[in-house]
Amino acid sequence: MLAGRKDCHDLYAGYHDTDKELENLYQYANYYTKIPVDKRTVRAFVALVSDSIKYSPWENVGYIDPPKLITNPVVVPTTAGETADPEGASPENVTQYDDEQSVRLMTQGSAEHQLNEDWVVDYFADAGWTVKQLDTEATESVPDIWIQKDEIEYFVEVEHKGTDQPANVLTNAARAAHYDMDVIFVVKKKSIAQSIAKMLREPVTDTDVHNGAQLYTMSDELTLTDGSKPVLPPDVESSQWYLRYQEPPEAEAEDDDDIGARSPSQIEPELRLETPDGEVLAAGSVDESVATWEFEELLCESDPSAADRTNVHGPFVPTQLAYLARSSLRYRNGDQLERLDPNEYPANWNQSDAAGKRERYKNAYETFVDRYTVAVDYTEIEKPDFITPMNERIYKPQTSRKAPGMRESGRALWQFAERKSRDNNALDLIKNRTWRWPHDVTSPDMSFVGHSTVLSELGLEE
Description:
- Residues 249-273 are annotated as: Disordered.
- By secondary structure, the chain is α+β, with helices and mostly antiparallel strands.
- The protein is 22% helix and 20% strand.
- The radius of gyration is 27 Å and the shape is globular.
């Protein structure tokens, strides 16, 4: 690791502590230490070139194409010979300036994230994939990387912070689903891959909620459409977002036909911001932008009396039941990326065949009913509409063991859900239960909603 300017000068001048006479030669020397490096390391060192260096250390390097050396760029170039959009360097799109005022865009993440991402770019390029590093090309919400080979394409997300920011991971998964793309998540360790698998199969932070689910909170502070940022009351240090179902309407009589089974579209969950004590600070429809809400009881951070109060952060509202089916998890193992095997997913119902297939099916469906549905009177889910997504999106991505068919799934399901029939017993339904979270709504607050110039150039449309 190079700690500062002197280390940089020492490296490029060829100085080392065995020859003190070379210490100050960097000011006029035209020779450099020769260090064999790969493409990834070249990109890392380019960022350390100082203005005092007048000769390229790559002039006599024959085994690799020399990089274009850049000092004090006004904007970050996309590729050699190209220039990024000058608007990209505007203050609202810049996450950090280094000591010499070089710009790094918000979409690029931290310097360590970029080094990890560069390694992944080289890994897939060396494997014969066509690779584009998208987050260096635009300030809009885009995947880290796009790869293609043999008419197969993926988004690739390098999750440097792993499980520290679950809503960010899930936003990346939701973006891929929005564009009908498979996505590869790359992490450092197998344990992190397993943790992300949990997020992707249950994109909410808590299902132990009697009438809904607790949502993950976005890392960015909430900014309203008028540019203000709401803060919590003075005696409240934290808040949580929930999806909660309202109490169902009451029937005038027990045989009232109008109070018959209601579909989830007729009884919708409400999106709520609550204090730890359950006080509702704000509430609204799940398909409305939170940025348009009127936080009448909350001050904005610009108010003098709002000093030292906690900012409100927006919620991650799931756009799908789960994101496992079209996600692949990879982790670093030396100089290789290993794929997380489905049998290594932390599913407590995934017993071996020796323990009995029906026992596995029963344990799986007990989990599915508990985690993905909630008891709400006068609602129902048709049996095929529950079993098919459970088997395809939840069961199969987490095990290589045989999935139950419709009959065996039903046998397991009815041990944990109330059953009713319709159409002369031709159709079975789950009675008085509905989905904990909707999986056909995309919140307008999602950063990827709207036209993307970068992705449209790849032929991808919403």
